Amino acid sequence: MNNDSNDKPLTYADAGVDIDAGNALVEAIKPAVRATARPEVLGSIGGFGGLFAVDFQRYRAPVLVSGTDGVGTKLALAQQLNRHDGIGRDLVAMCVNDIVVSGAEPLFFLDYYATGRLNVAQATTVVTGIADGCRDAGCALLGGETAEMPGMYSGDDYDLAGFAVGIVERDEIIDGRDVRATDQIIGLASSGPHSNGYSLIRKVLDRAGELSDLRIGSDAASDVLMAPTTIYVRAVRQVLQSFTVKAMAHITGGGLTENLPRVLPEGLGATLWADRWSRPEVFEWLANQGGIASDEMWRTFNCGIGMALVVDAIDVDPVVAMLNDIGQAAWHIGEITDHAGVRFE
Fold first, then answer.
1. What is the pTM of this model?
2. Which residues pair with 52 in a beta bridge?
3. What CA–CA distance (Å, rounded) separates 261 from 337?
4. Which residues pair with 165 in a beta bridge?
5. What angle do CA 329, 300, 201 make, to 5 degrees?
6. Closest Cα to residue 303, out of 254, 340, 337?
7. pLDDT by residue (tens digit) across 297-314?
8. Nearest to 303 by CA among 268, 255, 345
9. DSSP H helical segments within the chain, as ranges?
């Protein structure tokens, strides 16, 4: 015979899913989401699908460009530190930086937030950061999904994924096909590790000691390591208005070693001058604390360059000047060569 506790009718809340909390989150994030709206957005958040009315008459031969990503185990550090305000910008950056390398203008973004128990205040902070990133990238936060999954995730732990869609004219797609040896490489400064290599970073932290006691230069290590990923969309698109860029690479996991060759024609490579740019102190700190070899640093972290542009030699100086004038630090960091792979000098 069932006891009294087993006779009680079960609810979704008994299973760990709070519908009211989900509704409260939607209401809490509406102002931030509305602030990202573009004229093409139809309706408001809360529907089953986001509506975006593209005016295809503005384009000759439009091509949609899509990208999806997460922020990896940087989330574990964010949850350890209870710092969730920048992780949303990380999510947007990882997606929009990927699609802008094709020359695309980001149009809209969607997010997926999965957690064991919905903490409305925490989730609101995360989504507000996502909205901030969308505004920076010029795209609309069109919608998203919040999934409360007790048993899959523990307590307030959460995971994030993002999805971005952009648009580019077919004849303006940047795909690297016109890159030639002697073309030049411009590097755009990163804010730090961005959202890559954090499994290794967390290993280094295990060796280095109590995180709250650690400093990188004059700053708390936690502040440096949680710096949000730079969003390069506005800077890159401003360059594209005045100059021809033959190829671009978003420097993510794999570093310059792995990502730059992805956008080069077969048989071409690059020589990079490692003393030409300012490398954030965090990278030397990680190498020293973890005893990480130089080759491993280059192929794990961005090492100070978050985006690379390939241009004609005649354009390199004016492009670098433009980027620095608009507040995006950039340097002439190398050149394309007729040998495969990336070499550092």
1. 0.94
2. 41
3. 11
4. 66, 108
5. 95
6. 254
7. 999 999 999 999 999 999
8. 255
9. 4-7, 19-34, 74-81, 87-100, 120-137, 198-208, 221-225, 233-242, 255-259, 281-290, 294-300, 316-325
